[in-house]
Recover the amino acids of this structure.
């Protein structure tokens, strides 16, 4: 085996590896705790000392999706034997299901607004990025800097006039309003990232296509788009995650019909205090998709978080 | 590209044919492609910004639409800059900014340094460590209040496990002295991976040959670390600090869910304070001036920093 001065010794590697794994375990603890709390019964969730071993229960998930009313034992008996498993869980708390909770709706809003704004942002962003990458545009650098600078503004500061503007236009608390807003916020990211990806595609491909008789537009969607597919996909996931996680605009501009999940989850309360298993269940359903996306994105993660400034 | 092959072909082709073949001109396509994005950004960012600046000179209040709007000149600005409460929130923000950046840079760099030792499975562990920063700060912040509960919270339990203190004896969120640290800890937990990823890219960009040369010159590992590793990673580190600095100056979601600005005003960062003035007290004109001051601060700090960053890169 050849000796290299830059290759760490196996003892160094072992030490580094165990330190990193230790950190990973500590950093995962809160996340594991969220997921575990979702499967605890309310009394297990607030037990002292914190329970690591517990009997799993779906009470949190049932409470998350239902509205319940407390009834007297007499009425409970009159209601008869519960037929469904979730009825049973609710009956054991001495209550009956009185309806659906709003969580489903809020989650669905997050899906619509997230995917809607991502789609729109990708259409606008890809086109703009292509133009910035391939054409001579007057004041190109200034325009690109302007696009980036829109991201530096504190959302609360921007939301004062947006609140007024949306009220004038009737866009307050609507899906369309939120989609447009998130598209605008994400445009800076998508233009900058995609420009980087398109810059990497050799211009010769398009020139060959143009010589073969394609129009510019055909060359764009038959040559460039397929080549940029990975870049577009990872940019789209970044936009989706941002829209999915966004809280400041959502809490100020939506209250009912278009409210997304992040402002809603913290408001989940139970009888006599916070229903932590239900909150944890809601958080779990909301956070796990992002973790999956993170794994899909791992190769482009660095690029995404630095607006394409650092490329590996 | 005046002399590219396609230009030559275009010149050789008769104009009528060229028009039919090439469809829209490049210039038209460029406009069609860029205009919608710029238009949207103007409508959602610049127009509101101008509106904010205009409002900042008035005493307009959204909740009293019938009241006459008066032009008050610079009075809003005078009131804000002379208000001691706002300096308190600025102090809270500075404390938060300083400590999150210090902790994240130290831990993040150390982690990146370890991961760069290329032990087996380092890619997998890197992905796992990155999870917190991709999650919704509001949802996570809300759950951290549960971890910080005295008596039943996991955080207090772990602290008491290692120090022997009674877990019910301290409340991270309720205590005036601990609350500023509670937000620093949660933010550090969330964003250390961000600094780590950027540092890792910096470390990986250093060619092995430099270390080999240093080894030939018999430089000690310690010396190599300070004269090669640190200067080469510095531009990356500055970039990480720039991003974290801007993001944490704007911080709202995580902290508002964690402490809500309390106890008292001890963790009221500027964004939280602004939200109260604008959307709870409805002092629209006043808070517009406040917003303008924040814009100027962010842009000022960022541009000074970018200049410094470029200087480092030039070296």
């Amino acid at each position: 085996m050849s000796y290299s001065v830059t290759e760490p010794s196996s003892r160094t590697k072992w030490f580094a590896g165990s330190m990193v794994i230790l950190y990973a375990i500590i950093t995962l603890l809160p996340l594991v705790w969220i997921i575990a709390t979702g499967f605890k019964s309310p009394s297990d969730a607030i037990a002292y000392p914190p329970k690591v071993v517990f009997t799993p229960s779906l009470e949190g998930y049932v409470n998350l999706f239902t509205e319940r009313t407390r009834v007297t034992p007499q009425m409970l008996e009159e209601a008869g034997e519960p037929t469904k498993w979730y009825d049973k869980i609710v009956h054991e708390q001495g209550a009956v299901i009185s309806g659906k909770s709003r969580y489903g709706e809020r989650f669905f809003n997050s899906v619509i607004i997230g995917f809607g704004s991502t789609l729109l942002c990708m259409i606008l962003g890809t086109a703009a990025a292509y133009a910035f990458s391939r054409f001579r545009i007057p004041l190109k650098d200034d325009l690109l800097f302007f696009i980036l600078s829109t991201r530096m503004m504190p959302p609360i500061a921007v939301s004062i006039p947006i609140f007024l503007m949306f009220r004038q236009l009737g866009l307050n608390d609507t899906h369309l309003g939120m989609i447009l807003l998130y598209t605008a916020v994400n445009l800076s990211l998508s233009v900058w990232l995609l420009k980087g990806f398109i810059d990497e595609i050799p211009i010769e491909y398009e020139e060959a296509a143009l010589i073969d008789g394609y129009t510019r537009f055909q060359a764009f969607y038959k040559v460039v788009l397929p080549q940029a597919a990975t870049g577009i996909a990872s940019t789209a996931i970044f936009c989706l995650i941002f829209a999915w996680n966004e809280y400041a605009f959502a809490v100020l501009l939506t209250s009912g019909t278009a409210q997304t999940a992040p402002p809603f989850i913290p408001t989940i309360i139970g009888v006599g205090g916070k229903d932590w298993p239900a909150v944890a269940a809601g958080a779990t359903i909301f956070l796990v998709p992002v973790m999956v996306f993170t794994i899909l994105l791992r190769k482009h993660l660095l690029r995404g978080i630095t607006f394409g400034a650092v490329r590996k | 590209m005046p002399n590219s092959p396609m230009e030559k072909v275009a010149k050789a082709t008769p104009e009528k044919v060229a028009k039919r073949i090439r469809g829209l001109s490049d210039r038209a396509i460029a406009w069609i492609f860029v205009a919608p994005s710029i238009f949207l950004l103007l409508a959602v960012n610049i127009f509101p910004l101008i509106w904010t600046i205009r409002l900042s000179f008035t005493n307009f209040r959204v909740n009293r639409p019938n009241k006459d709007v008066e032009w008050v000149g610079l009075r809003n600005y005078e009131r804000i800059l002379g208000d001691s409460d706002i300096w308190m929130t600025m102090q809270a923000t500075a404390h938060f900014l300083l400590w999150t950046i210090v902790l994240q840079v130290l831990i993040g760099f150390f982690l990146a340094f370890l991961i760069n030792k290329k032990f087996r499975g380092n890619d997998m562990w890197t992905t796992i460590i990155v999870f917190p920063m991709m999650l919704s700060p509001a949802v996570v912040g809300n759950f951290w209040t549960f971890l910080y509960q005295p008596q039943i919270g996991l955080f207090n339990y772990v602290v008491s496990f290692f120090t022997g203190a009674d877990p019910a004896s301290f409340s991270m969120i309720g205590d005036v002295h601990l609350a500023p640290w509670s937000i620093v800890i949660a933010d550090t937990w969330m964003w250390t991976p961000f600094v780590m990823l950027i540092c890792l890219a910096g470390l990986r960009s250093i060619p092995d040959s430099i270390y080999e040369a240093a080894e030939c010159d018999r430089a000690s590992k310690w010396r190599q670390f300070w004269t090669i590793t640190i200067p080469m990673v510095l531009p990356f580190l500055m970039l990480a600090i720039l991003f974290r600095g801007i993001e944490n100056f704007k911080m709202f979601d995580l902290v508002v869910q964690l402490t809500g600005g309390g106890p008292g005003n001890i963790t009221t960062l500027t964004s939280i304070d602004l939200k109260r003035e604008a959307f709870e007290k409805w002092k629209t004109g006043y808070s517009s001036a406040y917003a303008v001051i924040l814009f100027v601060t962010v842009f000022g700090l960022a541009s000074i920093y970018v200049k410094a960053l470029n200087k480092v890169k030039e070296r």
